[in-house]
Design brief:
Blueprint: E1 13-14, H1 25-42, E2 47-50, H2 56-67, H3 84-99, E3 103-110, E4 113-123, E5 126-134, H4 143-158, E6 163-165
C-alpha cells in the first residue's frame, strides 16, 4: 500500500490525504466522489482531528453512536449507551489505553459537524481498529469508509506503527 505523507503540525488536517492505491479504480473514484459530497453536504472541507489525548471525545463518540441506527435497540442497535455495563467497559478500556499513550482517536469533521469518530488501540508495533461511529444523516457519503482509510493513512504517515488492522470483516473491503 502506497501511503501519502501526512503533513506535520498542530491542528486538524484539512482535506486529509487518503491512501487508496490498494483500492480498485472504481472504489477510488467512489471514495473521491463521496469525500467531495460529504464536504459539500457539511458545508466545509474535510478535517481530521487527532483527539487521542482528550477524554471528552469519549462522550462525543457515545452521543454520535447512540444518535444513529446503533441507538435503536429495535433495529438491532447495540450502542454502548444502551447498556451501562458496556459503557463502563468502554470507558475503562479507553482510559487505560489513553493513560499508556496507546490510544488513537480520530474525528472526521466538516463545517463544524462531526461526521465520524474512530478508535484504534496500539499493541506492540501495530494499531488495531476498536470502535467507530458516523453521522447517520451523512450515511449516503460513507463517512465510515472515509474515516477508516484516513485512519490507515494517518497511522502510517504519523506514527511508527508497522501495521494497522482495521478489525473489520471482508464485507467492508474498502474501509
Amino acid at each position: 500500500v502506497a501511503v501519502l505523507p501526512v503533513p506535520e503540525g498542530p491542528g486538524p488536517l484539512v482535506d486529509p490525504p487518503l491512501a487508496w492505491d490498494h483500492m480498485r479504480t472504481d472504489e477510488r473514484r467512489n471514495m473521491r466522489r463521496d469525500a467531495r459530497g460529504l464536504a459539500r453536504a457539511a458545508d466545509g472541507p474535510l478535517e481530521l482531528h487527532d483527539r487521542s489525548a482528550d477524554p471528552d471525545v469519549d462522550d462525543e463518540f457515545l452521543d454520535l453512536q447512540v444518535a444513529g441506527w446503533k441507538g435503536d435497540a429495535a433495529r438491532g442497535g447495540a450502542a454502548l449507551r444502551l447498556d451501562p455495563v458496556a459503557e463502563r467497559w468502554f470507558r475503562a478500556v479507553t482510559a487505560g489505553f489513553r493513560r499508556d499513550k496507546d490510544l488513537l482517536v480520530l474525528r472526521l469533521a466538516a463545517g463544524g459537524q462531526t461526521l465520524w469518530i474512530g478508535y484504534a488501540l496500539r499493541s506492540g508495533s501495530g494499531y488495531f481498529g476498536f470502535l467507530d461511529a458516523y453521522a447517520q444523516a451523512q450515511a449516503r457519503y460513507s463517512p465510515g469508509s472515509i474515516g477508516r482509510v484516513a485512519t490507515m493513512t494517518y497511522v502510517f504517515g504519523r506514527t511508527d506503527a508497522a501495521s494497522f488492522d482495521p478489525a473489520f470483516d471482508a464485507r467492508y473491503a474498502v474501509g
